[in-house]
UniProtKB/TrEMBL annotation:
Keywords, in A-Z order: DNA-binding, Transcription, Transcription regulation
SUPFAM superfamilies linked to this entry: Periplasmic binding protein-like II, Winged helix' DNA-binding domain
InterPro entries registered for this protein in UniProt: LysR_HTH_N, LysR_subst-bd, WH-like_DNA-bd_sf, WH_DNA-bd_sf
Name by which UniProt lists this protein: LysR family transcriptional regulator
Family label: Belongs to the LysR transcriptional regulatory family.
Key word Transcription regulation present: yes
Organism, as annotated: Vibrio gallaecicus
Every HTH lysR-type domain range: 1-58
Length: 287
């Protein structure tokens, strides 16, 4: 069905006259009148009552107006989507972010992306770094933000874009706070860690040969540590925000209580279209 006829119907109903609809659509009034008449023939319905000074929409026309507006919106979406695809803009991007890095500023970046590329389906997955690495290697993620230094084969591109400071935490008054701790000092204490979907270890955070309690979110980590269930490695900024609940442990353990790299990771096999390039550039500028 000719969408110009649909637009003539919608504009006439919204503007209240055929002349106003003609002006809005950039057509002659006679064209609007003929287009609506043709549409009424196609639909076998009267859309306007023309017996008065101005045409008024009929009950049948009012019932169809919502669907007519949806047809126009669908056409606009179709044309916009087609334009993006022809311009090298991807249809779908999967972004995986370590949950330590999901800040208010990061969420605003996601909003900005959707405003810039409204036709792109952006899938954002908030995961543990080891799960992000696993999915990157399986070519199921387009762009990843991970913590730590991971080594890949040549099919994976990675770039260090910043660092995040971490620290060890324990409950208030825990003996671990009395002296700088090493690996051996943590035996007998459980490590509270974030859960991995694929039951994988984070080699820069999970200590070997230590019993662990796995939970799904940062608040649960802090709550368990606060209640003396164990110790944990978390971003120092988060620890400082919760000092009334937990203590920071002075650590002698390499990579624990120090800096972790923030890595931007992309699989070589994934196409780097316009939207992906925008996303990578703004993630780098984010830091």
């Amino acid at each position: 069905m000719n969408t110009d006829k649909i637009k003539a119907f919608v504009y006439a109903a919204e503007c209240g006259s055929f002349s106003a609809a003609a002006k809005k659509q950039g057509k002659a009034q006679s064209w609007i009148s003929n287009a609506i008449s043709d549409l009424e023939i196609d639909l076998n319905l009267s859309l306007f009552d023309r017996s008065g000074y101005k045409p008024t929409i009929t009950n049948e026309g009012a019932a169809l107006l919502f669907h007519a507006k949806n047809m126009i919106a669908s056409e606009t979406t179709l044309l916009s989507h087609a334009h993006h695809l022809s311009s090298g803009i991807e249809d779908r991007i999967v972004l995986a972010i370590d949950d330590w890095l999901m800040t208010k500023k990061m969420r605003q970046l996601i909003v900005d992306f959707q405003l810039t590329f409204p036709t792109v389906e952006l899938v954002v997955r908030q995961l543990m770094t080891q799960d992000i690495v696993y999915l990157i290697e399986k070519n199921e993620v387009d762009v990843g933000l991970a913590t730590g230094r991971w080594f890949f084969d040549k099919s994976i591109r990675f770039q260090t874009i910043d660092y995040i400071e971490t620290c060890l935490i324990c409950s208030k008054g825990n003996p671990l706070t009395k002296t700088p701790v090493g690996h051996a000092d943590l035996f007998g204490f459980k490590q509270v860690s974030r859960s991995s979907i694929y039951n994988l270890e984070h080699k820069y955070i999970d200590l070997p040969d230590i019993e662990r309690v796995n939970v799904s979110d940062m608040e649960s980590v802090i709550t368990l540590v606060e209640n003396d269930i164990g110790w944990a490695v978390i971003p120092k900024s988060v620890a400082l925000e919760n000092q009334e609940r937990i203590d920071i442990i002075e650590s002698e353990i390499s990579e624990k209580g120090h800096l972790l790299r923030i890595e931007l990771i992309t699989p070589e096999l994934k196409a780097n279209g316009v939207a992906t390039q925008w996303l990578k550039r703004h993630l780098i500028n984010h830091y």
